[in-house]
Amino acid sequence: MPLPTGLVTEMYEGVGLPILHMSLLLGVGQGAVRAGVRAAGVALRPARAGRTVDDATSRRLTAGNPKNTPEHQGNTKVRGLVVSTMG
Q: Domain-by-domain residue ranges, the chain?
């Protein structure tokens, strides 16, 4: 069964989840998620060695964030706490 294109697009581009995390959340294999992303017309990100959580966090912080200003970059709120994502 094909994955909903809107959901796949939002998870991959909007939230910035990697294929592995999407497959775990959706309960399908990574191949099915890759096929769903391609079917939605979304370009796959190139694989990178050594990707860190900060990479995913930085994508989420910069993707359409109205508080994407120098004083807000590198910080995110988690349950009311400000958490620095900068090293």
A: 5-39, 53-84
